[in-house]
Design goal:
This protein starts with a helix and ends in an 8-residue tail after the last strand. The strands form 4 sheets. A two-stranded antiparallel sheet has the order 1-5. A two-stranded antiparallel sheet has the order 2-3. The N terminus is likely disordered. The protein has about 300 residues and is mainly alpha-helical.
């Protein structure tokens, strides 16, 4: 009885609150599609089969694409609509018949392009910090490195091989890799993405981390890793690049100074009783035996047995 009274009360409120002409609309008007802002019918999905009637060559290429999983796996939510997962609903595009009314990535800004891609890829760990990274602040679009339909590297959908693709923008690094002392990038012993996070990252220069948030260098140079009982402070304060050029150098061992002693003296020059050119200095810098620091101080990166890094 109470339920019946509630329904009667709601009916009376509806009559008093809304004009009578709204309630008297013909039944068929409620079944019309929703109108867009310009009064056009709502854009609907038309399936990939409809797209293939004009774009057959692109559909054949897409069959070998990792994104093909959208087309064949129902759990992704885009089965038989993989084209429209990126390009948007295609009904208006089909009806227009002139190439308009569709999301065309060539006409989008980098921000719009990236927003479209990140609808799916934002959850990837490699995208951490992408918005504030060097690539993000430079407004680099995903489509400048990746292609969906015309690709040269199917695995990552790259427009070129990874290293030439990076060096096409990073010319200063390309020049460094042509110096006499360098990492062997040209020989294929190392790649840009071995050290750098290509999409973002939270470190300076978008470098990767290794072994519990340590510098990426120790992934290969494991003997320099530590922790050491007696540390060389620059290893902790400045890191490897305090003494070394990361890509290539004109100096032996990729150092930032031509002679090793001058590199050491940048820090170890405030103790005249140890380093000077006259007595009572322990190290007479006029003598050749004291001009190569690592003749005695072998463990310049750190030692577990000697506080002076002698061995």
């Amino acid at each position: 009885m109470l339920h019946l009274k509630t329904r009667l009360w709601l009916s009376l409120m509806l009559v008093h609150c809304f004009p009578p002409f709204i309630l008297a609309l013909p039944p068929h008007q409620s079944e019309e599609p929703q109108k867009g802002p310009a009064g056009t019918a709502r854009n609907e999905y038309v399936t990939s089969a409809t797209c293939s009637s004009c774009h057959e060559d692109l559909l054949k290429q897409f069959a070998r694409n990792p994104h093909q999983v959208l087309e064949i796996q129902p759990k992704k939510g885009w089965q038989e609509r993989s084209c429209e997962s990126c390009h948007g609903p295609g009904q208006a595009h089909v009806e227009a018949g002139d190439g308009s009314q569709i999301v065309a990535f060539n006409n989008l800004s980098p921000k719009e392009t990236n927003s479209n891609c990140l609808k799916c890829h934002a959850r990837a760990e490699t995208q951490a910090g992408s918005g504030t990274s060097l690539h993000g602040r430079s407004q680099l679009a995903c489509t400048q490195c990746h292609r969906i339909h015309e690709v040269k590297q199917v695995v990552h959908l790259l427009t070129d091989k990874p290293d030439p693709l990076c060096l096409s923008c990073h010319r200063e690094a390309q020049a460094a890799f042509n110096k006499p002392y360098r990492h062997r990038l040209q020989e294929g012993a190392i790649h840009c993405v071995d050290c750098h996070e290509q999409h973002g990252g939270l470190q300076a220069h978008q470098t990767k981390v290794s072994f519990g948030n340590e510098a990426t260098c120790v992934k290969c140079h494991t003997d320099k890793r530590g922790p050491f009982a007696f540390e060389h402070p620059p290893m902790r304060l400045e890191g490897c690049m305090g003494c070394h050029e990361p890509h290539g150098s004109v100096n032996p061992k990729m150092l930032v100074r031509h002679e090793q002693r001058f590199l050491c003296l940048e820090c170890h020059s405030a103790a005249p009783e140890l380093l000077a050119s006259q007595p009572p200095s322990f190290h007479d810098l006029r003598s050749a035996r004291f001009q190569n620091c690592t003749t005695c101080h072998l463990r310049v990166h750190g030692s577990n047995v000697n506080q002076f890094l002698l061995h």
